[in-house]
Design brief:
Elements: E1 11-13, H1 28-34, H2 42-54, H3 56-66, H4 70-81, H5 116-126, H6 137-148, H7 151-154, H8 160-163, E2 173-176, E3 179-181, E4 184-186, H9 191-200
Antiparallel strand pairs: 1-4, 2-3
Length: 210
């Protein structure tokens, strides 16, 4: 599972007795439209969706070079860096040097300080999100999950990288490299919540991708 050694998303205690849900990857496209968003967290979801929309021009530069949808680049940017253009898309390390945390030593080409776009192109290609602009919705979500890693499947837990702040995720999180805790819960929107809000606002159109 890819995760920077010292950077983890904040977690909250899961409700007592909660059983983490697990969405099978074959159901991702259908689940995308069926899950509900956490109404109590709409302010945070909207704030992050606003930042993604505002950065569209920058994301489209990377999208053109990698054949990935601009909104996929934007969602990864929000999830991996918290919306910071001064850090690597790989893991949020500063652009003033190659990455230190996993994956270390990226980008392989060029000299620091790196431009955000150059580093982002390297990250999108490294984690196989390039050439995704023709994928159907389910396959695209599967690729997005792979950016963060498929380790949650071993625990029969839906990846919060995708499903946090939706009814498709009940709890469970990695709190350190290789350390999974079933009693904690992500406190950040996942990719599905962000994409759904972008869809609701008609900033994107995913209706034809499922």
């Amino acid at each position: 599972m890819k995760k920077a050694v010292t950077k983890y998303f904040p977690v909250l205690p899961a409700p007592s007795g909660a059983v983490p849900s697990f969405l099978d990857p074959s159901d991702y496209a259908q689940a995308f439209w069926q899950v509900s968003l956490d109404a109590s967290q709409m302010s945070m979801i909207d704030n992050e969706a606003n930042k993604i929309t505002a950065g569209r021009q920058t994301f489209e530069t990377v999208a053109k070079a990698t054949h990935a949808p601009w909104y996929v680049v934007g969602v990864v940017w929000m999830l991996e860096t918290g919306g910071d253009f001064s850090t690597h898309l790989h893991n949020g390390d500063p652009l003033t040097a190659q990455t230190v945390h996993v994956p270390a030593g990226r980008p392989l080409q060029g000299q620091p300080p790196f431009t955000w776009e150059a580093s982002a192109i390297d990250a999108i290609k490294l984690y196989k999100l390039d050439n995704t602009d023709t994928l159907d919705l389910g396959d695209m979500l599967d690729r997005l999950e792979g950016y963060n890693g498929y380790g949650y499947r071993r625990h029969q837990v839906s990846s919060p990288f995708l499903w946090a702040f939706t009814s498709g995720y009940a709890g469970g999180s990695y709190v350190a490299d290789g350390v999974f805790a079933s009693d904690v819960k992500w406190a950040r929107p996942g990719a599905v919540a962000l994409l759904r809000r972008l869809q609701d606002r008609r900033a994107i159109n995913l209706k034809g991708t499922n």
